[in-house]
Amino acid sequence: MTVAPKPLALFEFEETDEAYLLTVAAEGGEPLVLEVTPDQMDAIIDALNEVLGGDEDIDDED
Fold first, then answer.
1. What is the pTM of this model?
2. Distance from C-alpha of 48 to C-alpha of 17, rounded to nearest angstrom
């Protein structure tokens, strides 16, 4: 079953004591709140860096 993509309407992160909360919603849809572990957050960041061409080895000289 193929689902047609919908435009993103909401994307939020919130840090809790145990994990992160990721809230996403498509236009016209109800928000979906997901609990994300620190390891999962690292995987999300790695995936975004890979897609966007980010460099994890950037030195912060400030």
1. 0.70
2. 24
